[in-house]
Amino acid sequence: MRMSNMLITTLREVPAEAELPSHQLMLRAGMMRKMASGIYNYMPIGLRSLKKIENIVREEMNKVGAQEFLASALIPSELWKESGRWEVFGPEMFKLRDRNEREFCLGPTHEEVFTSIARSVIKSYKQLPLNLYQIQTKYRDERRPRFGVMRSREFVMKDAYSFDKDEKGLDEAYNKMYEAYTNIFKRCGVDCSAVEADSGAMGGSGSAEFMVKSEYGEDEVVFCDKCGYAANMEKAPSTAEKAEKEEAKVLEKVETPEVKTIEALINFFGTTAKKFVKTLIYKADDKVVAVMVRGDREVNEVKVVNKIGGAVEFELADEKTVKTATTAEIGFAGPIGINSDYLLVDEEVANMYNFIIGANETGYHYVNANYGKDFEGTVGDFRNITSEDKCPKCGNKIVIARGIEVGHIFKLGTKYSEVMGATFNDENGKVKPLIMGCYGIGVNRTMASIIEQHNDQNGIIWPLAVAPYQVVVIPAVIKKEEQMEAAEKIYKELQDLGIEVLLDDRKERAGVKFKDADLIGIPMRITVGKMISEGKVEFKLRNSSEVEEIEISCIINRVKEKFEETV
Ligand code: ATP
Ligand code: MG
């Protein structure tokens, strides 16, 4: 491509709205432009990288025997009503009506669509296993679109759905996807870890998220360097700390006026947060859930939701609900006499002695509370693991880091096939529900993650496999015939070899051209300057500061060598 003909939309200024390096760079390098909140248009240069990532995904999917498919983004509501998700999905789903008032949505994901296809085409075990995938546009009205295409409202997802006759088949499909994902991210130059993830209240037998470490990540991930354990915080089990044994004392109500927070309680009683138990009141759809954890702990909402069998809406209760449940102002909730549908008690609390709890009466707390003696509830693991906890697998030290999910693989089992009646006849003629798995990769999010991990102060440093162009040839002064001729010749030879090459024939100073090449992140740069009179050109890699002077006759080989090194 001749850059004089190309739509170049690079920006010199850092766009004010972008915090994340990848977001800034995608805008500055002219990869995309924002159209509305969480909605972006890809420019030609950005689209090239996006398509390359898609192709890597496609190749690796095909390699493990998945078949490409393409479903419509517009989905009739009936399918979602069958699965029960029309209401459950909530405001994240873009809903619309046609001219006849028939309801549709713009697909946020496609489990229902693929299950309905499987239901209509799969009759017998002989057609199994089957794995269908698509690379397609998804729509989600995210509560907080941000970080550019990391969390946008329209994005490209590769989603695959596997259908098997038994659990063994599902395990194989899942393992193949795990391998394919590992290869995809490796080929894209994304350093990420597969971590154990929550599989929801319905169980599901396994789930892994592919996480990129980033301080901007919205997930917290638990890692153990010793044994390699890695899990999403939502999933990682905590181990109850055993308090030192004490004789149980008599429960006593104490007046604590205006003492409503843990900090205020610590001051009032002159003790530590480990001696308190807080009772948090949540609203889970129309149910009230009280959860007790030690004063210095955080409730793990995913563990709580799983314990109560799932909830569409789950959040801390409003003031009115708290007042009804506790018959007190906020700040005095406790387990004794609480009016809630569930009372969940973290294991650690059940192991404490003589602790302080709210009295469900404004201005009062109880001291010397003991589980079993003074109150009872459902005991379990309801708190977040902390960096002071031990690795759930090997007992060594753990590290907690923030991460961004780029991919997710999930054993669905019969969750959709049962409710939607997607069945097959097994070897004995028995009708059984299909065993399913689903597997997603965010293509745009992967692109942003690549940039997040490959950049410097001058711009993007694309790995060769996903660079929009692989080589840029820059004649330093286009008016100098000798330079221009040599540049044209190199450009042509590289093109003939099938290499994706740019010729920067714009009427700009060499400095400007270098800046743009660096910002866009072209992996190899060939500069034809003064030295052409001695038959030499300059060769520079974007990821190195070294400039090699090379005989013009050797330059093509040098480029080819670089390709060979990378493959
Ligand atoms: P998150 O927790 O980040 O919202 P999710 O659990 O909703 O992700 P999935 O439904 O598993 O995501 O979707 C599969 C993949 O699609 C994710 O791993 C991610 O890479 C991508 N993805 C999800 N939501 C978005 C979004 N709003 N913008 C860009 N990519 C997204
Ligand atoms: Mg989401």
TrEMBL record:
Q: What is known of its domains?
A: Consists of three domains: the N-terminal catalytic domain, the editing domain and the C-terminal anticodon-binding domain.
The record ties this protein, via SUPFAM superfamilies, to: Class II aaRS ABD-related (SSF52954), Class II aaRS and biotin synthetases (SSF55681), YbaK/ProRS associated domain (SSF55826)
Into which family does the record put it?
Belongs to the class-II aminoacyl-tRNA synthetase family. ProS type 1 subfamily.
Q: What is this protein called?
A: Proline--tRNA ligase
UniProt catalytic activity:
tRNA(Pro) + L-proline + ATP = L-prolyl-tRNA(Pro) + AMP + diphosphate
Q: Which GO terms describe its molecular function?
A: proline-tRNA ligase activity
**Which EC number(s) are documented for this chain?**
6.1.1.15
NCBIfam families referenced in this protein's UniProt entry, alphabetically? PRK09194.1, proS_fam_II
| UniProt-annotated location(s) | Cytoplasm
Which organism is this protein's natural source?
Answer: Clostridium aestuarii
Q: Where is the Aminoacyl-transfer RNA synthetases class-II family profile domain?
A: 38-463
Superkingdom to which the source organism belongs: Bacteria
- What biological function has been recorded for the protein in this entry? Catalyzes the attachment of proline to tRNA(Pro) in a two-step reaction: proline is first activated by ATP to form Pro-AMP and then transferred to the acceptor end of tRNA(Pro). As ProRS can inadvertently accommodate and process non-cognate amino acids such as alanine and cysteine, to avoid such errors it has two additional distinct editing activities against alanine. One activity is designated as 'pretransfer' editing and involves the tRNA(Pro)-independent hydrolysis of activated Ala-AMP.
Tell me which CDD domains the record gives: ProRS-INS, ProRS_anticodon_short, ProRS_core_prok
Under the heading InterPro entries, the entry gives:
aa-tRNA-synt_IIb, aa-tRNA-synth_II, aa-tRNA-synth_II/BPL/LPL, Anticodon-bd, Anticodon-bd_dom_sf, Pro-tRNA-ligase_IIa, Pro-tRNA-synth_IIa_bac-type, Pro-tRNA-Synthase_IIa_type1
Q: What class of enzyme is it?
A: ligase
Q: Which keywords accompany this UniProt record? A: Aminoacyl-tRNA synthetase, ATP-binding, Cytoplasm, Ligase, Nucleotide-binding, Protein biosynthesis
Q: How does it assemble?
A: Homodimer.
Q: Where is this protein chiefly located?
A: cytoplasm
